[in-house]
Structure formats: structure tokens, C-alpha cells
Amino acid sequence: MRCVTIALLSLLISSPVLSETVPATEMKAVLVTGASSGIGRKITERLAANGYFVYAGARKEQDLNALAGIRNVQPIRLDVTDQQQIDAAVESITTAGRGLYGLVNNAGVATLGSLTDMKSGEFGLVMAVNVEGPYRVTRAVAPLIVAQKGRITNIGSLSGIVAMPDLLAYAMSKHAIEALHGFARGEDGAARCAGQCDRAGKLQHRAGQECRGAKRRRRAHRGSQPVPAAGRGRGSRRAGVVRAQSTASLHDRPG
Questions:
Q1: How would DSSP label each residue in the chain?
Q2: What does the alpha-carbon distance between residue 63 and residue 131 come to, in Å, rounded to a whole number?
Q3: Which residue among 52, 55, 101, 170 is the active-site one?
Q4: pLDDT in tens, 186-212
Q5: Which residue from 107, 110, 106 is spatially nearest to 210, judged by alpha carbons?
Q6: Active site residue 170
């Protein structure tokens, strides 16, 4: 499996078919996690429009209802941190009889915080969704995808190859996705299917918007703190500013 930075989902949609001419039971099926908004929603819409049958994973009833209105899309309740829901999703896909050609591991969350001020619970949430989630889902659907010699796409991030201030947990999780994708190249089963790791740039989905908003609030908070009269250099200013103790996170996560 090659980790490349080509256009999003180019592997999956390299040979699109017209949905008007192919019965739904004969369409290649793809599972997209975190399909309720942002990148996941756009991927779902694009694949469905290009002739794929999409199992769109989401957690909230209102999101499931919205996804149900898209042609060639079947919403499926899926919290990637819940193994029972993952197993139920695999059972539903298997029972449908069309198999599974592709998986897009998109579900993810982001949280702001450094090593010293991030709450352990928020760190754990990011790891559970961004790292354990793709691992659990990929492991669960692998037999179906291998059977069709299908494809797996992991939605990575530029944070998976660089580290940015206040994005400790998110950067760690996306570095883990790079490792997961690289390691899979040596798996026997993975050798019988294709895959890619797409590194998203500036986040435009709900998680990114929440993080940018929290970052602006944090900067405003820091700017309002008094700075000691002596030693206004960069290092001393950092030491003199009291950091916000609360860490902003996306508990209302997409998907």
C-alpha cells in the first residue's frame, strides 16, 4: 500500500461508473466513517454521484436522516469508538450482499492543548477516535475488502508529518495514521488490496473550525494577561503569560 499525497480519493474514483445505468445491487460499495459533515460528507456525495453505493457512518439521528436523503447512500449508525456498533455495521453490510469495495477512514476529532495543560480525558478521546477508530474499523472490514481486491483510504493530515503548537494530541494521532498505513504494506491481506493516505491541509471541517475558534479565544486570553515589566523578551513573555487552564476540544465530534 502506497502512501501518496495525490488528489483526495483518486484511487477510489479512478474508474467512475454512471449510477443511472448500474443497478444499486451491482454498484461497488464504500464505507465512509464520519460522514455527517465536512470532508466526510463531501466524500460521500462525490462517491455517490460517481456511481458508488456509499454506507455513510454517523452517530446522530439528525445526521443519519440527512444522509438518507442522498441518492445511492445508506446511512449507518457508527461510532468508531464503539466495537458493538462497528460489528453491527459490518453485519449490515455483509447481509446486504453487495460486499465492500472500499473504506474511507475519515472520522476524527481535534483538541487544543500542550503537554502540560491538556486534560488526560481529552487526550484519550482524540486517540480513541483518530487512532483506535481506524484500527478497529479497518480490522473489522478487511476480509470484505480483500475479497473484492478493494481499496482503503486513510484521511491523514499535514500534522502527521509536522508538529504544530497546541496540537499535541492531534499531531500524535495523525503521525499514528502514517505509521498504520506504512505498516499495512507488510500485511499479507493488505497486499491483495490497494490504499492511500491523503494528507489534508488546512482543516475546513467541523473539527478544524472548532480548533481555530478555540485558538483565537486562547490567543485573546493570553493577550489580556499582564506581562512583567522586566524581561519582555520572547522567552520571558511566554513565561509571564498565564495560560488558559481549560483545553478546548470537540466533544460534539463529526460522524
A1: -----SSTTTTTTSS---GGGS-GGGSPEEEESSTTSHHHHHHHHHHHHTT-EEEEEESSHHHHHHHHTSTTEEEEE--TT-HHHHHHHHHHHHHHSS---EEEE-----B-B-TTT--HHHHHHHHIIIIIHHHHHHHHHHHHHHHTT-EEEEEEEGGGTS--TTBHHHHHHHHHHHHHHHHHTT-TTGGGSEEEEEEE-S--SHHHHHHHHHHHHHHHHHHTS---SS--SHHHHHHHSPPPSSPPB-SS---
A2: 23
A3: 170
A4: 565 554 555 556 555 554 445 555 555
A5: 110
A6: yes
CA distances from 120 to 109, 174, 176 (A): 15, 18, 18
Angstrom distance (rounded) from CA 24 to CA 127 = 36
Residue 112: pLDDT band with limits 50, 70, 90: confident
Whole-prediction pTM value? 0.71
Q: What gap in Å lies between CA 119 and CA 244, rounded to an integer?
A: 12
Tens digit of each residue's pLDDT (9 = 90 or more) over 119-141: 999 999 999 999 999 999 999 99
Residue with cell 436523503: 69
67 is written with which cell numbers? Answer: 444522509
